[in-house]
Amino acid sequence: MSTYSDRLLKLIVMSDIHLLPRGEVKRGLDTAPRFDAALDSVQAFHMDADLCVFAGDLTEKSDVKAYELFDNLRSRIDLPQRVLLGNHDDRDVYIRCAKEPMQDENGFIEGYEDIKGHRVLMLDSSEPGKTRGGFCDKRLTWVVERLAEAKSAGLKVIILLHHNPCALQMPVDTYRLSEPEKLLAVLHDSKAEIIQIVAGHCHITSAGSWGGYPCATISGNQHRVEPFLRGRSGQQACYEDPAQYAVLLSDGTNCAVHFQNYIDQSTVMDQLLFPAKMNQEFEKLD
């Protein structure tokens, strides 16, 4: 019998990398060394991951040199990798630049991986030239077919996409996924066991549910925004850190999404204050 760790799915999800050609800076932030720090973090802590997914907005303005920089930087991570697109990406430019891009039969940048009893379903919500993403009939049909396969095979489903479908009750909702009810209807009709949805796009860390499905967002590699909720006015604050990616762990019963900060100016407390945290034991679930 396999050990628990052999059965535990581990996914890394990065989003909103916003790379520019080497040396260019926007809003005072050079996103290339920030992305390098993300990759350093993965190398230090998560080289046992089953898959690393880059969930869109790879570049700031979808130019060739930025896509080349993206591929050059991520090449040092010896993990299976998949790439999705966001509103800052251009599908045609990316396809011309990419080496063996993940594509469905209609040329959209989407696909799936079946790993350890799970189907990791990676969706193309990008609508080049538009801030809001969406799904045309072809993409919705593709999702219907993939969910039907997952249900038939008894696979738990994890959905990854760029545009957040869940309303966060913030101004960023004005450019979340367009017509999310169309995708939600497809998910409900499938009767598939969808255990988690993870998105980027909104530059904020959140967790909740959308139509009954657990849904989380990550702030990503560029700036993050504060929770600016209904009833407020004035200027929303933006911050240089933390920059973060998601670490998703699932054994089929327990599914957890952790937010790994790799740029964070928080003060580290003296370890001597927490002697019980030295070499702690993990719960045995075998």
Automatic annotation (TrEMBL):
The keyword Calcium belongs to this UniProt entry's keyword annotation: no
Keyword annotations: Hydrolase, Iron, Metal-binding
Domain of life where this protein originates: Bacteria
Classification via InterPro entries: Calcineurin-like_PHP (IPR004843), CNP_phosphodiesterase-III (IPR050884), Metallo-depent_PP-like (IPR029052)
Domain Calcineurin-like phosphoesterase: 10-203
Keyword field contains Calcium: no
Pfam hit, one: Metallophos
Entry similarity comment: Belongs to the cyclic nucleotide phosphodiesterase class-III family.
Protein name in the entry: 3',5'-cyclic adenosine monophosphate phosphodiesterase CpdA
Organism of derivation: Pseudovibrio japonicus
